[in-house]
Design brief:
alpha+beta; Nuclear Transport Factor 2, Chain: A; eight-stranded mixed sheet; 3 helices; 8 strands; about 20% helix; NTF2-like_dom_sf; Nuclear transport factor 2 family protein; SnoaL-like
Length: about 140
Amino acid sequence: MPGTDTDTTDSFAPAPDAIRGTVEAYLAALRSGSSAAIVALYADDATLEDPAGTAPKVGRDAIAQFYSALDGSPQKAELLTLRVSGASAAFHFRVTSPVGDHEYEVEPIDVMTFDEQARITSMRAYWSSENLRQL
């Protein structure tokens, strides 16, 4: 943009395509219902706030425990918007989750940071119970 500094390149940042690949793999792992596939995308010392503002889960063990609720419960997940800037990404997506005899839909906005190998180093999910919709 004219008059602004749009160079957000960090010397340690992975290529934008690598970040996009991790985001796509994250959504594919949600669809699979495999917490192990999700956790494999995180760095060992990563942090997770889901939703943002809750106590952070720190490290892969805590993150694995958080995602274990998804095991055996495939989700529907659709990427709506993705923006990559340096070693960070923000993306808006729709996820539909089966809960008992019902399905619930939410459209969070996740903000992630990445290491040199495009592993997730932090994730904050922006949503609240007000955003849940029963289908």
